[in-house]
Structure formats: C-alpha cells, structure tokens
Specification:
This protein is α+β, with helices and mostly antiparallel strands and about 425 residues long. It has 3 domains: about 110 residues, no CATH class; about 70 residues, SH3 type barrels (Roll); about 120 residues, Alpha-Beta Plaits (2-Layer Sandwich), CATH 3.30.70.100. About 50% of the residues lie in helices and about 15% in strands. It is built from 13 helices and 10 strands. Strands 4-3-2-1-5 form a 5-stranded antiparallel β-sheet. Strands 6-8-7 form a 3-stranded antiparallel β-sheet, with helices on one face. A two-stranded antiparallel sheet has the order 9-10. Helix 10 crosses helix 11. The longest helix is centred in the N-terminal third of the chain and has 35 residues. The chain is elongated, with a radius of gyration of 35 Å.
Length: about 425
C-alpha cells in the first residue's frame, strides 16, 4: 500500500473511532441519565462538541504518528497546525457546553412561572451573568492558546512583556467605560439589587427588566417600548424596584371632593367594590382624608394587589367607580366653590353644628379598620411595627408630617405616610 494511502486510511480510521466513541458515550449517558437531569443535559449539550473536538483530535494524533509520508513537506506541517487549532477550538466549545449544561441543570430547580419567584429570579440572574463571564473567559483562553501555537508570537514574547506596562495603561484608559459596565454587571448579579423580571421605575418610565448583560440592561416599558441603559446606571443612580422583596404592592387613588362628602359611606363603597373584583389581593383597603385645605377635602383610597399590573388596573377601577358613585349617589360631595352671603351659617341645610349627643360620640369613636394604614389588621400591624423605629426617647420635634416646613405627608403613589 502506498504511504499516502496508509496516511489517509489512518486519518479516516481515527475519525471513525472517535465518532463511534462519541456515539457510544451519548447513548450510555442517555441510558444512565434516566434519573439524572445533569447527565441528560451533558449528553444533549456536549454531544456535537465532543464529536467535533474528538474527531479533529483523533485525526491529528493519527496523522502525527502515521508513516513518514511527506514528513518534511510544508503542507503536512500546515495541515497538522490547522488540526491543532481545530482541536483547541473544539475543546473550548466542549468546555463551554459542559458549563452550560451544569448551569441549565441548576436553573431547572428554580421556577420563574410561579407567583413567589423572587429567589428563582435572583438565581437566574446570577447564573446568566456567570454564563456570560465563563463564555468570555473560555474564548479569551482559547484565543490565547491559539496564538501561542504560532512561533512568531512566541518569539516576540519578550518585547510584548517589556511594553506590557505602557499598553496596559493605554488600554485601561481607553476601555475604562467598558470595564466599568462589565464590573457593574457583575456587581448587579451578586448584589441582588435588580434581577430579571423585576418591575422598576427608571428615568420616569415604568417597566420590567427584560435582559441583563455585562454591559447593558434592557427595560421593557409598559407600552412595549424598550429602554436601553448601561449597567453602570443601576450602580450609580437611584431607581425604584417594586419587586425587590415581593411582587405585592400598594397603590393609591386620590379625590378632591367637597367638605360635605360622607367619608364613612365612601369607605364602605370602596370596600364593597374591592371585595367584588379579583384584582384585589385581600390585604389592604383603606380610605382616609389626607388633606383639608381651602375649599376641598382630599380623600385617598389605598389598595393592594398581588402584582404591579393588577394594581394599575385596580387603581383605575377604584377611580372610575368612586367618581361615578359620587356623581350619581352623592352629588352634594362634588367639588364646588361657595360664596357666603348674609348669616354665618349661610342657610346650608346640611350643616350640623351641634356639639352634643351623636356628634360628640361620632368624633370620639375609634376609626374602623379600613380607615387605618398602620394597624387595624394583620398587614397594618406589621407595617406599623416596621415604621415605629427604635424604642428610644426622642426630643420633641415639629408636628407629624412636617420637617423644617417641608410636607412629609403622602403623595399619590407613595407607599404610605410616616407613623403618627
């Protein structure tokens, strides 16, 4: 048999053996992995990379140890070099596939399609960021190993090392923004400040974290627009995270009405409304008078929902229903401007200035549960204990809700007023 034919047969035989071994391992791992998700993932992710890397490596070894046909020929050395490069690339592919299989196995234990998925989203965010880091490291190592196979690269190693200091300074100055975003992405993954699918408010926009990479974050805004921000934004600027600890949130609907508004009847109507809709999660339903300045009274309805989208719809429903209720059932409470002419009472038949009997008992009565944000229910008691602060004597200060003339009272969308 001619020497070239023997060399070709050796290469083909080595490739056939490698493919056979890869197929046997694939079927064996599938059989053994009937009760092991990890083995199944390794078999599925690593089958093709192992075929490619194993075949190239087997052909390279077979040709290197075959007969001396064209041993000194340039094409033989070039072919062996190409096979070495292919082996390095295939090995990098295989290592990456093994790591991806391990990461997918870890993620399979945590479901994100359930209501209470905070831990699952945190693990998913960290695994996704680790996956990108490991892929980048594998690519860099494979590229470095590839370059080191060229004698010219090894020969200039001394000069490269000698100028490494200057090059490093220049590269650091040129890539400081990129590196800052990369480190910010790693920090976000492990600080748990923001996770995939978190509901956030950034740049005045309300949306969810759709994608989180090492260099940028994609926020899906409620109207399906996309807001692209560098990862360093979330480590250098404040933002709202509505699902940092849980998905359930509170929201408000405010009304400016006349002083004659029947607050208790309005409170009962709010309770009747939320108990008849699936948008309410059953935690908080409170109606309070939060302001009474000038000619109007500000009434705030505070309600809770299981998630932010449900809360938005619930707030809109509360506004629509209570506006219609005031208009149709209690038109006397519609906002109005009065001009008093004549006596002090102005002839208003709804004005009750009695200070005895029923009026006194009503003012002394304890507020109902749905008139209290802090207390009156299990959720209110828990919120009260959270905002009480340390049990220490404090110096007398300005009245509750004011500090140096600044109004600390609740605003529309606030979680609630301070204690007191």
């Amino acid at each position: 048999m001619p020497e070239y034919a023997e060399t070709i047969a050796t290469g083909l035989g080595a490739a056939a053996i490698a493919l056979l071994v890869a197929e046997v391992l694939y079927r064996a791992m599938h059989w053994l992995g009937r009760r092991s998700l990890l083995l199944i993932e390794l078999a599925e992710h690593g089958h093709r990379p192992f075929q490619v890397a194993g075949t190239i490596f087997a052909v390279q070894v077979g040709l290197r140890h075959s007969t001396g046909y064209a041993e000194d020929a340039e094409w033989r050395h070039a072919l062996l070099h190409v096979l070495v490069l292919g082996t390095i690339a295939g090995a990098a592919w295989l290592v990456g596939a093994v790591l991806l299989a391990a990461e997918d196995t870890a993620l399979a234990r945590f479901r994100t399609d359930v209501p209470d998925n905070r831990q699952a989203r945190r693990i998913k965010t960290q695994v996704v960021m680790l996956r990108r880091v490991t892929i980048a490291v594998i690519v860099v190592l494979a590229l470095g190993a590839t370059l080191m196979t060229f004698p010219s690269v090894r020969g200039v190693g001394a000069s490269v090392l000698a100028s490494a200091g200057v090059i490093g300074v220049v590269a650091a100055l040129a890539a400081q923004t990129v590196l800052g975003n990369v480190f910010a992405g790693i920090q976000l993954a492990f600080s748990d400040a923001v996770r995939l699918d978190d509901v956030v408010v950034v740049e005045g926009e309300w949306g969810r974290i759709e994608e989180l990479t090492l260099s940028y974050v994609v926020v899906q805004i409620w109207d399906d627009r996309r807001l692209i921000l560098p990862t360093s934004y979330f480590t250098s600027k404040p933002f709202q995270n509505w699902t940092r600890t849980k998905a359930a949130v509170l929201g408000t609907a405010e009304f400016d009405v006349d002083w004659s508004v029947p607050v208790q009847l309005m409170r009962e109507e709010l309770r009747r409304l939320v108990e008849g809709t699936e948008l309410w999660d059953g935690r908080v339903c409170v109606l309070q008078v939060t302001d009474a300045v000038g000619g109007l009274v500000r009434v705030r309805a505070l309600v809770s929902a299981a998630d932010a989208p449900s809360l938005w719809d619930l707030r809109c429903l509360v506004r629509e229903h209570l506006v219609a209720w005031i208009r149709d059932q209690r038109p006397i409470a519609l906002p109005r401007t009065r001009a008093e002419v004549g006596g002090a009472s102005g002839g208003f038949d709804w004005l009750d200035v009695s200070t005895t009997g029923r009026g006194r008992s009503a003012s002394a009565a304890e507020a109902p549960d749905d008139a209290r944000v802090f207390g009156g229910s299990d959720d209110g008691d828990a919120r009260s204990s959270t905002f009480v602060g340390p049990d220490e004597p404090v110096d007398p200060g300005p009245p509750a809700g004011h500090l140096n003339g600044a109004d600390l009272g609740p605003r529309n969308g606030d979680a609630g007023p301070p204690k007191g």
